[in-house]
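Protein: GL11975
Species: Drosophila persimilis
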Amino acid sequence: MCRFIKLMLYGLAFSLCLCIFVFIFAMILQQFRMNAEQPTVSKPPSLTIAPLGRIVGLEKVIMWGEIEEQSSYTLQKQIDHLVSKYGYRGEHRLRGCNLDHAWGYLSNTPCVLLKLNLALNFEADTYSERRSLPDAAPSALRHYMMETAPERRSNKIWASCDFVTKNVETTLSFVPEMYYDADGLFTRENFYVDPDTPENETERVTHEEPGFRRVIGVKFHNLPPNKHVHVTCSVWARNIPLDYATVKFVMYRVDPNAHIETLDVLYDEIDMHDN
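Structure follows.
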């Protein structure tokens, strides 16, 4: 009888240990289970531009003007193609770039769009104080953050563009703002409860596809004719490496009535690389 009781106790102990082992193993599997749409480690987003321009040597050149009329039309179509994906919301967000209905390329206020590409379920670790920005951040971004109210600085992925060679007359501005709102930015769709829903009504839910919020415009002013204007643009968050989110390009406005020596050199380079 005692032997039988011992065997039962051993059996119960073994069953209990087995259950604990299976439970722990199941928890580990659940923790590390791969999901096709939600990778274990989210890669940071990359940064691209529109229009694409053309490659001349090692430089990406966005060139337009009276001589390059067809090129100007191509640049506009490239921007239209990107913005059209987002419908009215995209057009409304970037309307400050398109006052001449040519994205500024007919009024010497050309826009280049900065697009943060989708990194599904990525969560940005953002800067809310200018003192916390890395040393590489330009002074224009620090000044912008200083002028932004503290309550509006949270959860923002900041953007900056800087000229490699400074020119007092040439400036740039951002449309609509110098940042991307990181709230729900890297999802395919979001659903929000409308806070203005009356108490006697069922809560209204707003549906959003946030892709249009991953695009901002950089608007250039007073670009000199027939000169290479080198530009570097970056976005800033603690967990977005600069090499992922920095683009460099050249703005080049063609004016046949201005000094054209530099233009001849540029056309020679284009002919050489197109052959």
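Remarks: Residues 234 and 246 are 4 Å apart (CA to CA).
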